[in-house]
Write a structure and sequence with these properties.
With 118 residues, the protein is mostly helical. It has one domain (3-117). The chain has four helices and no strands. The radius of gyration is 15 Å and the shape is elongated.
Length: 118
């Protein structure tokens, strides 16, 4: 598989995960708005997912290997920020009823990062 085709395929996977995470976290955000400190991780994930999707939409026609490398670094940075936001949620929501969604989301984010790094 050539680098260009592989990069396009990986970007599509990232767009799928980002769109899914954006929608899922929006629903979860509305459920956790009663305690704003518990909604902080969801707000961070929604904003960062939207940034990923907007950046992908703006740079969708760039197809050089240099552009792919730059996009990959930006996406890795954004996913690391998403993991940090989710880790914040793990500590803030520990022991409360809002804790249930944090570990599966964190696993999904780690899988996104692995997909970008491999």
């Amino acid at each position: 598989m050539t680098d260009g085709v592989e990069s396009i395929a990986r970007r599509r996977v990232l767009v799928f995960f980002a769109a899914f995470l954006l929608i899922a976290m929006l629903f979860d955000l509305f459920a956790e708005l009663n305690t704003i400190s518990h909604a902080g991780d969801e707000i961070g994930l929604v904003v960062l997912s939207a940034i990923i999707l907007l950046y992908m939409a703006v740079s969708r026609n760039k197809k050089s290997t240099k552009d792919f490398a730059t996009q990959k670094l930006v996406f890795i940075g954004l996913v690391i920020l998403m993991i940090a936001a989710q880790a914040y949620g793990l500590f803030v929501e520990a022991g409360t009823e809002d804790f249930g969604d944090d570990i599966p989301v964190l696993i999904g984010l780690v899988l996104m990062l692995i997909d970008l790094l491999v």
